[in-house]
Amino acid sequence: MQRRKLIPLALLRKLLIAATCFIAFLALFSVRTHIVPSSKDQRFNDKISTPQDPQRWTRELAPPHLSKAPLPAPKLNGSRGNLDYQKLWKPPSNRGFLPCTKPTPNYTTPAESRGYLLVHTNGGLNQMRSGICDMVAVARIINATLVIPELDKRSFWQDTSNFSDIFYEEHFMNSLASDVKIIKKLPKELVNATRVVKQFISWSGMDYYENEIASLWEEFQVIRASKSDSRLANNNLPPDIQKLRCRACYEALRFSPRIEQLGKLLVERMRSFGPYIALHLRYEKDMLAFSGCTHDLSPFEAEELSMIRENISYWKIKEIDPIEQRSKGLCPLTPKEVGIFLTALGYPSTTPIYIAAGEIYGGESHMTELRSRYPLLMSKEKLASIEELEPFSNHASQMAALDYIVSIESDVFIPSYSGNMAKTVEGHRRFLGRGRTISPDRKALVHLFDKLDQGILTEGKKLSNRIIDLHRRRLGSPRKRKGPISGTKHMDRFRSEEAFYANPLPDCLCRTETPPVNISLTV
Fold it and tell me: CA geometry: angle at 101 spanning 97 and 102, to 5°?
């Protein structure tokens, strides 16, 4: 009897062991036969979502490494949200000013061309951009046919881009057809013709171009302008010439379609995080070397910048006192100072910030304090995939064009230094009536920051109120362009004026004319 009972138990034990082995085998088989998608397929799948996916709209815009729910963004719902909007994001009133770039009734089609104007632009993207628009006006003044300008390939950035790589060439030519005749290349019969090379005098007016420069047509068919930056006066030019400058800059000179396409995508990806600040953080090696600003840098870094300045022949000033520069407000704010500034203005730590800049000098070591205050620091390198950026990555001016687009479209634009990009973006946003543009009062801020370092002041409500009061009238609202500083003479007088493209009012912003239909929004 006992033996009969043991037989079924033994069979049961064997069946359990067999079942366990079978289940383990199935599990092992399923793991080994799982199909792993290729990296290419995975990237493609990451951008596709099912209709039930609540984050579908974000995933369609985001590259693979951002295709997940965005980090918490500022909430603007409810009464508290409305207060935040009024305080932090609300655009300043345009006070009834609208773009007015239409020619006056006396404006005529281009007169018969007397010759050809070749232009060698100089500087970075925004310096070249302003120079191109000025040369359109110069070509009109001297009755020249403008040859598509040659971009600067020998500046600090060593960018090999041609005009059509950055700008929409056909649109530029067609938009200005009623103003100036523009051709892509000099006619073959004139390629080897004798030409005069001139460096036009900075901030020159009508008399200089109508008399001294136009008289060159008596001997030459081709005039070559060796530089393009600041060659035309900011003020005291005929209204039609000023309006032509605006049509050239804000309507005709668009970026190339491929740059606009990616720029628009970057804007949409920033928008997925909520209202955002575009911070032009001018803390790059070239800026610090040129300005001689070394605050918060190590002795090694200061020496490196000094050597760069010494070795670049066309930077005329070699010996610079960094302490004096900073006390005069002539240095860019450091990333640390920008963080204190934004906190004092009231922007919460969840604020999305787009860093519109090249490579930050010192890299992450100088960004730590800003990032600790504002973790959501984004850039084109973070918003776009490697594949998307690859066509532009070795071209500084094309990368700067992407930053320009995101900056123009931002809810708030803040430059840490009033350089060429800061001025051109500020002017473009004023023209479009686009959002807040906060211009830091660097001279006043430096004194406050020094008091913080000395322990005389502490961060808090008192500092915040002082900084807010300093910037109530620095939010980008329409105002008349500033003239020269009293007491300045000669070139210093022109240099002290507010740049035309930083503020095109009153010439191109009026209270009497509705905006033209064809205004380009860059994107």
Answer: 120
Q: Are 98 and 513 in contact (CB under 8 A)?
A: yes
Q: Where are the alpha helices (DSSP H) in 409-510?
A: 420-432, 442-454, 461-470, 490-495
- Cα-only R_g, the chain: 29
- Complete DSSP assignment for 125-136: HHHHHHHHHHHH
Q: How far apart are CA 171 and CA 455, in angstroms?
A: 56
- DSSP annotation string for 356-393: --SPBTTGGGGTHHHHHH---EE-HHHHS-HHHHTTTT
Share of the chain above pLDDT 70, in %: 82
3-state secondary structure 234-289: CCCCCHHHHHHHHHHHHHHCCECHHHHHHHHHHHHHHHCCCCCEEEECCCEHHHHH
Q: Take residue 38 and report the two structure tokens written for it.
A: 């290729």
Contacts 24+ apart (CB under 8 A), 433-437: 433/91, 433/94, 433/97, 433/98, 434/91, 434/408, 434/409, 435/91, 435/410, 435/411, 435/476, 436/89, 436/90, 436/91, 436/92, 436/411, 436/412, 436/475, 436/476, 437/412, 437/413, 437/475, 437/476
Which one-letter amino acid corresponds to residue 21?
C
- Average pLDDT of the residues of the chain: 86
The ranges of the chain with pLDDT < 50 are 1-7, 26-62, 64-73, 513, 515, 517-523
On whether the CB atoms of residues 227 and 118 are closer than 8 A, the answer is no
Q: Give pTM, 2 decimals.
A: 0.83
Nearest to 285 by CA among 315, 327, 329: 315
E strands, 10-157, are: 98-99, 115-119, 144-147
